[in-house]
Amino acid sequence: MNNYIKSLEWRYATKKFDTSKKVSDEDLNILLKSIQLSASSYGLQPYEVFIVTDREIRKKLQPVSWGQAQIIDASHVLVFANKTQINADWIDGYLENISKTRDITLESLSPYGDFMKSKVLALSPVEQAIWTSKQTYIALSNLLSAAADLKIDTCPMEGFEADAYNEILGLSQKGLNAALVAPIGYRALEDDTQHYPKVRQSKEKLFTHI
């Protein structure tokens, strides 16, 4: 079996982490790089990721995470926060980054910038927030796959109170909203969930060849 598929078979949403094991700085940097390299619409990456290790902050986050123990027990807690609004200045900043990185003129990027603005800025504030939130799921997927390759466990979460996260982490004043949470670390031996057969739709039901 392909090693990548083996890694995906190995991973599961970890319910209990081994509190004695921590993800090394080296491996953490690989995981963060996988997020940084993630695909996103137009390449805009309209989100930020917060790596929470502070125990006191995590104690505040646990009650608003449906009491889930992973928030406390995991090595690190990653919070994906989407930008709630995109404006022309933000897109211009992205174009400047392209210009600098690829050593090309801003003028040559003008048509691309105009196209992005015509699409993104035409969205209502609610539509923008939904769109940027969707981008965080792409980044999360990269994290899950990279972590599985390193045999690092993860537990992607939507079960938390976003407004409370925004308040505790000071996200709202930064124009951000907590969209996803991903504790990372190493599974505890007593987590029986790791032994459950993986339940997925059959290929016949999931895929349609046209």
From TrEMBL:
Domain of life: Bacteria
This protein's record includes keyword NADP: yes
Pfam families documented for this protein: Nitroreductase
UniProt keyword annotation of NADP present: yes
Matching CDD domains: NfsB-like
Residue ranges constituting the Nitroreductase domain according to the UniProt record: 9-186
Keyword annotations from UniProtKB, A to Z: NADP, Oxidoreductase
Similarity annotation: Belongs to the nitroreductase family.
The protein, known as: NAD(P)H-dependent oxidoreductase
Source organism of this protein record: Costertonia aggregata
